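subagent[fold] <- orchestrator: predict structure for attached chain, return tokens only, no commentary.
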Amino acid sequence: MRTGTATGGRRILRRAVTAFAGERGAATAEYAVATMAAVGFAGLLVVILRGDEVRGILTDLVRNALTVG
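subagent[fold] -> orchestrator:
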């Protein structure tokens, strides 16, 4: 009969692996959702910044910043 910390450690590890088996891939799915949200936000920014009004506002902002000296 084998006793000691090695056997107890294996038993605890086996329980932990079994407990988290249902959550396998959860972190990967969360990263995928966050990445897709970031891509969507970046796409929205591109659409907004391509507008003529925004381009004019940014151009005026840069001109004013360069002439205030």
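orchestrator: received. Logging for downstream: The chain has three helices and no strands. The chain has a mean pLDDT of 81.
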